[in-house]
Amino acid sequence: MRPIEYQYDDFIVSTDCSRLDRDVIHRFLTNSYWAGGIPRDVVDRSIDNALCFGVFEKSNQVGFARVISDYATFAYLADVFILEAYRGRGLAKFLMECIVRHPQLQGLRRWTLATGDAHSLYAKFGFTALHRPEGFMEIHNPEVYKPKP
Ligand SMILES: CC(C)(COP(=O)(O)OP(=O)(O)OC[C@H]1O[C@@H](n2cnc3c(N)ncnc32)[C@H](O)[C@@H]1OP(=O)(O)O)[C@@H](O)C(=O)NCCC(=O)NCCS
Known about the structure:
The protein is α+β, with helices and mostly antiparallel strands. The chain contains four helices and six strands. Strands 1-2-3-4-5-6 form a six-stranded mixed sheet, sandwiched between helices.
């Protein structure tokens, strides 16, 4: 897929995988509440097999998100973050706009995501609580990255 770039003030959102700073992404995710302890090789694989959106100030990566999709019916949004020093200036909203408008992600029947506390961010882009939570199932293994005893 041809990479796309979007400009926002001095920042760029890019889907060019080769621009990503995998050290920054791994450092953030391995300390996050949802993927704590995630190994570097797992982050690498997750990047290699997703449509990734990097947020950059010049060449420095300051934010990230990735979408897992069949580009036809379904997409799952994951690993959204903006580095702390860059928060509160609209970057996550711009990143979300780039994601939901991406040409390969149009006409999907369903998008899903999981969030601890950022519901109102995603609500701005059409996400709602599950209409029929009883119709959804999951396999969730939050201990998957914990060292085995
Ligand atoms: C959530 C996060 C991506 C927001 O980034 P940001 O660039 O500061 O966000 P923006 O400046 O674009 O504004 C976010 C908007 O969503 C709202 N919001 C909702 N939940 C929020 C949350 N948990 N944190 C920050 N903003 C939140 C803000 O109030 C703001 O709305 P407003 O414009 O009406 O005031 C950032 O705080 C972050 O990386 N947090 C740590 C990682 C995380 O929790 N990621 C989400 C996992 S689902």
